[in-house]
Every structure is written in C-alpha cells, then in structure tokens.
Amino acid sequence: xxxxxxxxxxxxxxxxxxxxxxxxxxxxxxxxxxxxxxxxxxxxxxxxxxxxxxxxxxxxxxxxxxxxxxxxxxxxxxxxxxxxxxxxxxxxxxxxxxxxxxxxxxxxxxxxxxxxxxxxxxxxxxxxxxxxxxxxxxxxxxxxxxxxxxxxxxxxxxxxxxxxxxxxxxxxxxxxxxxxxxxxxxxxxxxxxxxxxxxxxxxxxxxxxxxxxxxxxxxxxxxxxxxxxxxxxxxxxxxxxxxxxxxxxxxxxxxxxxxxxxxxxxxxxxxxxxxxxxxxxxxxxxxxxxxxxxxxxxxxxxxxxxxxxxxxxxxxxxxxxxxxxxxxxxxxxxxxxxxxxxxxxxxxxxxxxxxxxxxxxxxxxxxxxxxxxxxxxxxxxxxxxxxxxxx
Length: 391
What we know:
Layout: H1 14-24, H2 26-39, E1 45-51, E2 55-61, E3 74-75, H3 81-95, E4 101-105, H4 113-126, E5 131-135, H5 140-144, E6 149-156, E7 159-166, H6 167-179, H7 183-186, E8 192-196, H8 199-212, H9 214-217, E9 220-224, H10 239-251, E10 259-264, H11 271-280, E11 285-287, H12 300-309, H13 316-323, H14 336-347, H15 356-370, H16 376-390
Parallel strand pairs: 4-5, 8-9, 8-10, 10-11
Antiparallel strand pairs: 1-2, 2-3, 6-7
C-alpha cells in the first residue's frame, strides 16, 4: 500500500514528495536546497516538475529561481547516484516528525570526502532527535562527526568480531595513533588547518569549533604549533618568516591543507604589539582577546563539576567563596591558569591540582553542555576571526 505521507525506502517517489514540499512548505524547501548546496556547491536549487502521465521529474539547477534559468535544469538522474541519495536523506531529516533510525551504508561510495563531511555535519547539527547508523571503510566518517560509539568489525577465524569504542576511548586511540605518525594520514581530505599554541588547545578546539563555528568545523584539522615564542623578533624570527614556514608546510606535497591562522595566547602582550604582529603577518598570526584559553572558563558551576569528577567532596558554595577572592573585573587580563591552579588547591585542601590537559577539556565540555552562554565571548571572537579568514 502506497503511503502518501512517508517516503518509500527506495525513494522511488522522491520527485512527488519534493514537489509537495515546494508547494506546501516553501521555507522547508529552501532550507533543503541550502543543505544540498553546502554538500554540492554547484547545485543551488532542487525542484520537482510535473510531466505527462501524472508523474514528476526532479531537476538540479546551478542558480536559484530568481535567475530564471530553467534551461540549465539537469535531470537528477544524470547527476550520479550521490545527489539523489543525499536529497532523499535530507528530505527525511527535514520532514520527519518522530525520531527515526536512519542507516547509511558506505556513504563514501557515492560521495566525495568533502561532500561526505558536509552531509555528516548537517546530520549531526540538525538531526539530534534521530539515530544514525553509518557503515564505512574510510576514516573520513570518524573525523567528521563526534560519534558516541564506534563499532569495528573484523573477521577472525571465520567469525565476525565486533569491538566497540566510546567517544572517550576514541580520543585515547587517536593519541596512540599520533605516536605512530598517523596524524598526517588523518589530514587527508581536510579543507583547512587551524594551528593552536599547545597540546591542550589541540585537544579541545575541535569541540570548541563544533560549538562556535560549525560551518567550518567538519573540514578543519587542529594542530599545535611548536616553539611559539619564535615569532618574536627578539628571538631572531620575524612574523612573516614564521608564517612562511607554516604556509610552506601546509602546502608541501599536498599532505597538509592550507592554514586558517596561527591562534596564540595573548599573555601579557600590549594591544599595540598584538595589532602590529597581526598586521605584519597579514592576519596569519592571531591572538585570543583574553590572556589565555583558561581565562574564558572561570565559571563556578563548571569548576565544581570538574572537581567532583576528580572525586573531590566539595560544595558549590566553597568554589564560589574561593572565587570571590579573585579580582575578575578585567576579563582580558585574568590569568585563567593561575586562578584555576589556586582554586583547585584551595577547594580540595591541596589534594587535587589543576592539570591543563586533563581539566580544560572537562571544563569546556561541561560549559558547552550546560552553560554555553558563558562561552559566548569565545564563540563571538572565533567567529569574527575564523570565518573571515577561512572564506
């Protein structure tokens, strides 16, 4: 029995459903076309047109309807299987009123790595009420989404063995792979690189970017810069030379994508010094607008949660009382690391010490999940510099 409300599994009636969408929900249809263009930049519009025998035909256009270039419409059947599959997936994502289990088998088989990353980024941000099951042989899927569980299927003694890894375990696996030199391979297919100052920033900025700049997060690799102090002229290397080194690395042999910028802590640098260095580097060297990353994370509830995770039996009031002893009025000048070190020691009676690589990821994750407004200054700053620089 044909159900006029639900797209069939083979998507054979997709043209009919797209026609109904564009006539009854123009806003939804435009949203669908925007998603399609993110995945396939050369396709600006998807439309369904009635043809003889009471059927519909689906077409792709390089321009929106305002261009009035119907002569450029191409039947979707001539565009390859990838775009038809994507339109069907996005239609279900857009119109499903109840949570769905959506299985996508080997998306790498019909999508370019960049297109796949954009599709997965859309599914991750827009499909939070649904469950997606992806099967793939490529690591592109692992690097494009922050999946909750990964299952590895291996054939051992004529039997399929399933091994699962949680999100936390995956972070550990990636660290071990990096020791084997796999990080360069992971960069394959990435669109851009954001260089950051240290190991902690390298760990947390992928999550920060998914929150602050989802438009570029999926295709951005975050790497840490070595010897960040060398960009100072007094150490013998002017800004344009350090930029030249990293841009040369980014373009060598196609192994490393172009960089967005090198993002560094402001530390105690004067505003005029930061402006001078940024100008001399043509904005390839950028500074946080606060002293360091930790300076954005001073929030009592998050700190209390981090201490509790370490097994510290403390109350929120203790954290708030300890925090009241610091002058936090000049946010740009707060030494966030020092504040956190003293807080952890004071509240835990010196039984716990603040460890940047362990505790900053906890603070960032807690704030994104529970109090994202506290990170708005960081989000606004990153959007201001990264989206302009990467465009």
